Amino acid sequence: MIAYINGKLETVTETTAVIEANGVGYEIICANPFRFQDQLGEIVRIYTYHYVREDTQTLFGFSKVEEKTLFARILNVSGIGPKGALSIVATAGVKDFVVAIEEENEKFLTSFPGVGKKTARQMILDLKGKLPFEFDVSADSNDSETVKVSADQIKALDETVEVLKSLGYSDREIKHITPTLKQVTSTNTDELVRKGLALLMQK
């Protein structure tokens, strides 16, 4: 198991970060890769989850141990794959997610791409009562993982969604990339549209 990688941050894209360590370039699929944007060319540490199946090996990366732990717990829920778990971690703060599970807040849980009522109930069934032992969800805890978006960013994001719809993309396709777009700290609609199109073309 690869717990984390220390190395020079070479590139950041909408979905990945590449770290060079000891002459090897590791491509890591990240929750919120743009968090590392300001550290290009610097030595960084990314906490990794090594996902292994018969036909694939993938490194998923996180800026905090808590995010990695939550990803692993969500991944153990029946019906949740790595992309779904990563999307949840990328969009929700750890504290907000744990509170939603404990309060059985299905509306919050079904706001994530690919999560319907059945999957939300399964998450509650599998995780309720377990997460508070691993995560601090007290009122005074600092949940810096929560996505914070300014009013100008929200306006630009809304405009971007409308532009993508006018180009023929479905609500489902757009909803799938919205969590990643929220990580782009830009109020420029044109820039968001370009990034949105790049993400959609990867699907």
From TrEMBL:
Domain annotation Helix-hairpin-helix DNA-binding motif class: ranges: 72-91, 107-126
One GO molecular-function entry: four-way junction DNA binding
Subcellular location: Cytoplasm
Pfam family, one: RuvA_N
Region Domain III: start-end pairs: 152-203
A GO CC term assigned to this protein in UniProt: cytoplasm
Keywords: ATP-binding, Cytoplasm, DNA damage, DNA recombination, DNA repair, DNA-binding, Helicase, Hydrolase, Nucleotide-binding
Protein's GO biological process: DNA recombination; DNA repair
Keyword Chaperone: no
Keyword check for Glycosyltransferase: no
UniProt-listed InterPro entries: DNA_helicase_Holl-junc_RuvA_I (IPR013849), Hlx-hairpin-Hlx_DNA-bd_motif (IPR003583), NA-bd_OB-fold (IPR012340), RuvA (IPR000085), RuvA_2-like (IPR010994), RuvA_C (IPR011114), RuvA_C_sf (IPR036267)
Domain notes from UniProt: Has three domains with a flexible linker between the domains II and III and assumes an 'L' shape. Domain III is highly mobile and contacts RuvB.
Description of how the protein assembles with itself and partners: Homotetramer. Forms an RuvA(8)-RuvB(12)-Holliday junction (HJ) complex. HJ DNA is sandwiched between 2 RuvA tetramers; dsDNA enters through RuvA and exits via RuvB. An RuvB hexamer assembles on each DNA strand where it exits the tetramer. Each RuvB hexamer is contacted by two RuvA subunits (via domain III) on 2 adjacent RuvB subunits; this complex drives branch migration. In the full resolvosome a probable DNA-RuvA(4)-RuvB(12)-RuvC(2) complex forms which resolves the HJ.
Similarity comment: family membership: Belongs to the RuvA family.
NCBIfam families linked: ruvA
Role: The RuvA-RuvB-RuvC complex processes Holliday junction (HJ) DNA during genetic recombination and DNA repair, while the RuvA-RuvB complex plays an important role in the rescue of blocked DNA replication forks via replication fork reversal (RFR). RuvA specifically binds to HJ cruciform DNA, conferring on it an open structure. The RuvB hexamer acts as an ATP-dependent pump, pulling dsDNA into and through the RuvAB complex. HJ branch migration allows RuvC to scan DNA until it finds its consensus sequence, where it cleaves and resolves the cruciform DNA.
Record's protein name: Holliday junction branch migration complex subunit RuvA
Source species of the chain: Paraliobacillus quinghaiensis
